[in-house]
Amino acid sequence: MKFSLLLLMLLSLKSCGSTNAIMSIQENTMQKLSGLYSVTTLGKNNTLAITPEINFDENTNRVSGFSGCNRFNGSYTITENNITFGPTASTRMMCGEEANSIEHNMFDVLSQVNSFTLKNNELTLLKDKIVLLIAKQNNDYVIEYTAASRGSYQQININNQTVSIISKRGGSAKAKTCSEADWEKLITLINTIEIEKITELEAPSKRFQFDGAAIARLTIKHKDSTYETNSFDHGNPPKEISVLVKEILSIGENIE
Amino acid sequence: MAALAFLFTACDADKNEIVQEQQIDMSDFYVYTDADSDEAAKSDNKKNASKSCASMTVLNRQLNENPGLAKKMYNIELHTRKFIAGKGKPTKPGGGGGGGGDSDVDVAPIEDNMGVIDIPVYIHIVYPDASTKTISNEQVTTQMATLNADFRDKNTDQLPSGTTFANDATDAGFSFSLAGTFRHDDSKSSWGTNNSVKADYPPINPETHMNIWVCNIGGGILGYAQFPGGSEATDGIVLGGDYFGNTGGPYGAGRTATHEVGHYLNLRHIWGDGRCRQDDFVADTPSSNSSNGGCPAFPSVSCKTADMTMNYMDYTYDNCMYMFTDGQRNRMRPLFAQNGARAAMAGN
Asked: Is residue B207 annotated as part of the catalytic site, yes or no?
């Protein structure tokens, strides 16, 4: 994926050759396709009454989403800058005329596109250099980690703008800007876990029950939903989220 | 393996119990080793093999580390509930943690004819300089006094107006007598919470005496305990010296010991270590979403009711906690009755 993007950008570099393009090569090679995108432009329509969504998973090459009325899923294939979508399965609900029309256009576009670009969290799907769809990566995550014992308290809040830390119960927060590199790392890690399922994770140890460890919880807010883990020992999170927690703590530590 | 099988069959065993004798509902019980019987059974039934295997691995590892612990804790819980039920009280101490509802659940103290139960105490002070310069004799004396007061006093005069907690505050009926103090010079500056201080300075007569280790723990931990049913080699509580007896600051009134002795006597944190629906197995403590800290003004509301922030099993400051409830008392005392986990301590 990175390689194909690089190729893609080299091609475009050749055609325009500006220094701006060189800058964007470095940014874009960092970006991964995995994640949830909200469609902003469909065909010539950029004032969509309903926002379709597409979710890419690079690990499985599966795509899923909301096509305006129904939910769909299917596969996709990428070779270099080319992308094709396989047949999609979909729920079969009927909606109003507007939703049906958007959905019809969505499937029409997905069946036609043959290339893509990904730049500054914006995904563009094209057919023979004609833009058919533009979507913005949806990364409005809010991450909250708390660890409390009777004698200590730590709360780390991170969103795409700010990292803030509270080190005393009811205390005020110290904040700094969340760097793009840190945020990118977190989003990549979040994309590797199923956030809906963190609420079911079982703690590998429960020493917090007799004060042998601070009691910790991880909360991820995304769009209108909040996903909160069960309590676990600070220092021994469930393995599914252990790398993410380590990264959160490391970003939180660098604030002081 | 036997213990594992036991976990999966726990629910069926309950049903048999019901037929045979009094109804003892154990369905809400969980042990601290890991997945409770309910969840283990659930994941066992799941089609998703990888998830099932993951929790099995964890369960297996922990049971291997301490075989039989889950079963011991289950048996202690069953004994506790049978004992309380035998005194004609409700057998399922849910209620308060059952997800809101009536906040004013009143539990009557059980009549167990055991009177005031005396617990003899050994104290092991472990510091680079373990002399009275580091931990004074006055700290030892004031700590014993605090334990003796907290497990006998109702302190209802300290309750904020507007609470319904006055009828819950209890005389738990325990006294503590100092059996001996041992001072060990040890250069180790931080002991953590992995029981290493107990390995280096083993407990004395843990079946009949409560052992308290006083050392620097570190990591923001003021003290830690072990539930009944755990290994005798590590039975007892550990306290940081800065929080032992009357010292200074918000944790300077000796209540860290009161809280840890609560765990030692089978009490869970008052918020049940989980969200609203996770129970502490005590009916007259209101359900709570998480720990409270500092010195909260009343009412501090979570799960639609006022939290009992002044309970010794919350995380509030020493001077802002001052009560056990009747339900907590009823949960501690069966340990000392015949066949209880700490029966030998009371000569039963």
From this structure: no
Scored b (16 or more CB within 10 A) or e, A182-212 reads bbbbbbbbbbebebeebeebbbbbbbbbbbb
- Residue A207 in contact with residue B219, Cβ under 8 Å? no
Kindly state whether residue A73 falls inside one of the protein's structural domains. yes
- Listed in sequence order, the residues at least 6 apart from A67 whose beta carbon sits closer than 8 Å to its beta carbon are A52, A90, A102, A103, A106, A107
Low-confidence ranges of chain A (pLDDT < 70): 1-31, 255-256
Query: Which structural domains are found in chain B, ordered by start?
Result: 2-92 (no CATH), 117-346 (3.40.390.10)
Quick one: pLDDT at residue A12? 42
Q: Of A137, A153, A182, which residue sits at a domain end? A: A137
Task: Provide the whole-model pTM.
Answer: 0.75
> Which residues of chain B carry a pLDDT beneath 50?
1-20, 33-59, 91-102
Kindly list the residues from chain B whose CB atom is less than 8 angstroms away from the CB atom of residue A194. none
Is A116 touching B (CB cutoff 8 A)? no
Q: Are residues A168 and A127 part of one domain?
A: no
Q: Which ipTM score applies to this complex?
A: 0.80
CB A127 within 8 A of CB A114: yes
